[in-house]
Specification:
- With 558 residues, the protein is α/β, with parallel strands linked by helices.
- The protein has 18 helices and 22 strands.
- Strands 19-15-20-14-13-21-22 form a 7-stranded mixed sheet, with helices on both faces. Strands 3-2-1-4-5 form a 5-stranded mixed sheet, sandwiched between helices. Strands 8-7-6-11-12 form a 5-stranded mixed sheet, sandwiched between helices.
- Helix 11 links the parallel strand 11 and strand 12.
- The C terminus is likely disordered.
- Bound molecules: fe (ii) ion.
- Fe (ii) ion binds next to helix 5.
Length: 558
């Protein structure tokens, strides 16, 4: 029975998680508090910075003090990193990173007065990723595949998890890294490295794999569970794209080719793991596991029956994984993860006080889900702020921006609100029991938006805003027992329109992290053309937007 705080602080997406007696109590990313996207710059100089706000939130959520923590699990082990040399400046200051990790117990003690120094333990980066999928999935036994940019000295882990124990079967050493190759491509296409990889995945739907033969030469599995990535001269294939410049057909072809090769390699690694382990189930984590197109190919084409992906598959998830692993090491049986809604929440009185402070007119409708559904059905955009915020990069109906999927123009409208490129899709949420009628070729249920599904014939025309150029949609299924309020919203929308699907994208404006607290929500509502803010049981209407039940939406005078 232990209190374990997990911390990710080394590269990007600093985060904290709290596991008490094996139960996941809270998890949050630092960016949601500081409003700095990805928390910090992933450079060695920032390694000392801790996710202090997220840590404080986790402890407050459990009503615990630092002195009551049995273990702080830090998701990086300096003993596995390249040894720090006397000259800290070599290898891009890698030694400084290692030095700061070794000093982490002191930094933690400084920010958590009362913490016992011996409480800090280091969990290898990829073991933390692995634990975020194994313990969290509740699948035991299972095979586990971790792929990311890098950990201490490796970029991958393949293993088998049995009776709560991980056996590592393969680990690919750097510099070979699928995640770093994808990051390289992201930067080459004018996007932000280790941030905008999903834009490349979206762009890949627009090209043809004309460079695939070259990529197949350069990137190969090794037959022993690992892979080789030869130096890829992307410039020789297609010139680099300036930030913000429109992409050309060859750029899309390059994105398609790298994406396709990534999918092939992941499939081969999964096939190797299946042959070695004989497991029925596979769990995935690491930043590459946020690639829902690759995940879907694993689900469709690999020999595994079930595939589970950690929703916070990027480095933020190592905070949770490290905590779960340390809890197991201390004798608890941690997990599973029942929801990604592990962040902050506010009760009615607090929300009402915030609305009064903001001085906005608000109402308390009898049924907030119905009020929101009414605005959506009249083609309004709804900012939906309900319950605990999500852990991981996807909005799952707690901090969401919602719209009507029947109007193709809503894709452009939402991308405009969020300052996103127009080639990027928005995703649908759908009632779990109806999902099979509308979507196929992907796992159901799919509660975390980590797979793509094909939109069934006849439905593409009915929900055009959420169908990507390749005929797929990255769906979120909503189960009534897991999320009754979101399920009710979908039901009320269906009652008005006959469509049990709503467009769902994360609640934020351009370049900002997802909204987390009520003030963020009000700022977002105040600065973007959103028609209704549904916050707890209250609604704030844009002037001129009709009340629930009235279908006509009065246009605000221009
Ligand atoms: Fe990682």
């Amino acid at each position: 029975m232990a209190v374990v705080l997990g911390v990710n602080a080394v590269f990007h997406d600093p985060a904290a998680a709290l596991v008490v007696d094996g139960e996941i109590v809270a998890a949050a990313e630092e960016e949601r508090f500081t409003r700095r996207k990805h928390g910090k710059s992933p450079v060695p100089f920032s390694t000392w910075e801790l996710p202090e706000h997220a840590i404080r939130f986790c402890l407050a959520e459990a009503g615990l003090r630092a002195a009551e923590i049995d273990a702080v699990a830090y998701s990086y082990d300096a003993d596995l990193a390249p040894p720090a040399r006397d000259d800290l400046t070599v290898d891009g200051w890698e030694g400084l990173r290692t030095l700061y990790v070794r000093r982490a117990p002191r930094f933690l003690q400084a920010s958590l007065p009362g913490l016992r120094p011996q409480a800090v333990r280091f969990i290898a980066h990829h073991r933390a990723h692995a634990a975020s999928a194994t313990f969290a999935s509740g699948m035991d036994p299972c095979a586990v595949l971790v792929l990311d940019g890098r950990g201490e000295g490796t970029s991958h882990l393949g293993g088998v998890f049995r009776d709560g124990r991980l056996e590592v079967l393969a680990a690919q050493e750097l510099p070979h890294s699928l995640g770093l190759l994808y990051e390289e491509l992201t930067a080459h296409l004018g996007f932000r490295r280790s941030s905008d990889e999903y834009k490349v995945m979206a762009m890949a739907s627009y090209g043809s794999p004309s460079f695939l033969p070259t990529l197949r030469e350069l990137v190969r599995t090794d037959g022993a569970g690992g892979f080789r990535v030869a130096a890829v001269d992307l410039d020789a294939l297609v010139p680099a794209l300036a930030a913000g410049a429109p992409f050309t057909a060859p750029h899309a072809d390059l994105a398609t080719s790298v994406q396709r090769r990534l999918e092939e390699i992941v499939l081969e690694l999964a096939g190797w793991l299946h042959a070695r382990t004989g497991c029925r189930d596979l769990v995935l984590a690491g930043g590459v596991a946020l690639n829902c197109v690759a995940n879907s190919r694993v689900w469709r084409e690999s020999p595994f029956e079930r595939v589970w992906v950690q929703p916070a598959a990027g480095d933020a998830g190592t905070a949770l994984g490290a905590a779960l692993q340390a809890a197991a090491d201390l004798g608890d049986r941690p997990g599973p993860m029942r929801t990604a809604a592990l962040g902050r929440s506010w009760d009615e009185a607090e929300l009402e006080a915030r609305l009064r402070t903001a001085g906005v007119a608000f109402e308390r409708p009898a049924d907030v889900a119905d009020a929101a559904a009414g605005v959506l059905a009249a083609n309004g955009v709804v900012a939906w702020f309900q319950g605990r915020s999500e852990f991981g990069p996807r909005a799952l109906g707690h901090r969401s921006l919602l719209a009507d999927p029947r109007h193709p123009g809503n894709l452009e409208k939402l991308n405009d609100i969020k300052g996103r490129e127009q080639f990027r899709p928005v995703a649908p949420m759908v009632l779990a029991e109806r999902a099979g009628e509308i979507f196929c070729d992907g796992p159901l249920p799919s509660p975390y938006m980590l797979f793509t599904h094909r939109v069934r014939d006849g439905w593409g025309e009915r929900i055009p805003a959420v169908v990507h150029v390749d005929g797929t949609a990255r769906i979120q299924t909503v189960q009534r027992e897991d999320d009754p309020l979101v399920a009710r919203l979908l039901e009320r929308f269906e009652a008005r329109t006959g469509v049990p699907v709503v467009v769902n994208t994360s609640l934020n404006t351009a370049g900002r992290p997802m909204v987390d607290d009520p003030r963020d929500a009000l700022e977002c509502f105040g600065s973007a053309p959103v028609d209704l803010l549904a916050i707890g049981p209250f609604v704030v209407r844009r002037a001129g937007v009709a009340a629930a039940g009235e279908h006509a939406r009065a246009e605000v005078a221009a």
